[in-house]
Amino acid sequence: MSEGGILSVVGIGPGDGAHATPAALEAIRNAQVVVGYRTYIKLVRHLLEGKEVVQTGMTEEIGRARAAVERARAGANVALVSSGDAGVYGMAGLVFEVLREIGWKRGEAPTLNLVPGITAANSCASRVGAPLVHDSCTISLSDLLTPWAVIAKRIEAAASSDFVISLYNPASGRRTRQIVEAHSIIRRHREGSTPVALVKGAYREAEKVVMTDLDHFLDYEIGMLTTVIVGNSHTFFFEGYMVTPRGYTRKYTLEGDVLPGQQPGRSLVVREEEA
After folding, report:
1. Nearest CA to 228 among 145, 89, 84, 131?
2. Residue of 203, 208, 134 lying closest to 166 (CA atoms)
């Protein structure tokens, strides 16, 4: 171990090695110590030969973050792995909280290396078409760390603003009420025919995709590994794909001609009835 260790906080993507970035794979290969949740460690087990592995279970995130920081401060090259992107509902934020608590200053050991990955919204979207082409947001329905009243307020704001909404952590064996309440909130602002995609375990062996609508998506199995993508008022199904248009046809024909009253490179002119 060298003086002044390295802590790489690594997003490994959806779990298929083909969708982990070269930078993520390199960070894990170069690490002396790899820290992660057991399930995520299994996804990179082919990269772990000869390395010290620290793996813990669900709800032990603080312990993983502390272990990674401590080993890196001691001089090790450490990779702390998260599925998806470590900066999106992942371990990156908790690492910074631990560093702040211990009084770490930028330039001190360990050196930080934040490695992005493909988050669930992106990987799941690619399995169903192009649902995130316009404004979208992600909302976790887990109330283990966030009060439900806050989550409900965010769902209300997103639904009323016509965002495409990707719901993370929608349900578990003991937590089934939240997805029902989320549906009720969104339904106040969206037609029942609004396209909805349910993607379980994108790019993993047990992957399952369901294309349905707002009125019927609760009829299907939804669990912790499911991401629920709810379209906006313009989202449509086409040949088995879910598509949210960016809005080009409000300004141009599909031959590329500018529509009357519009100007390329200028703000969209909206008719009064569309405002």
Report:
1. 131
2. 134
Reading the block at residue 89, the tokens are 């509902």
Cβ count near 76 (within 10 Å)? 20
Q: How far is Cα 9 from Cα 19, in angstroms, rounded to an integer?
A: 17
Q: Answer yes or no: are the C-beta atoms of 93 and 140 closer than 8 Å.
A: no
For the chain, count helices (H), then strands (E).
Answer: 7, 13
What is the structure's pLDDT at 271? Answer: 77
Segment 72-97, tens digit of pLDDT? 999 999 999 999 999 999 999 999 99
Q: Are 132 and 199 in contact (CB under 8 A)?
A: no
DSSP states of 156-224:
HHHHHTT-EEEEES---SS--HHHHHHHHHHHTTS-TT-EEEEEESTTSTT-EEEEEETTTGGGS---T
pLDDT confidence of residue 2: 44
Q: Which amino acid is at 62?
A: I
For residues 71 and 26, the answer to whether their CB atoms sit within 8 Å is no
Peptide bond between residue 116 and the one before it cis (omega within 30 degrees of 0): no
Selection from 78, 105, 108 nearest residue 91 by Cα: 78
For residues 44-67, give the mean pLDDT: 92
pLDDT digit string, tens, across residues 131-143? 999 999 999 999 9
- The residue among 224, 207, 14, 226 whose CA lies nearest residue 118 is 14
Rounded distance, CA 86 to CA 194, Å? 31
With cut-offs at 50, 70 and 90, classify the pLDDT of residue 57. confident
d(CA 118, CA 120): 7
Collect all residues with Cβ–Cβ distance below 8 Å to 93 and sequence separation of at least 6. Answer: 87
pLDDT over 90 at 166, yes or no: yes
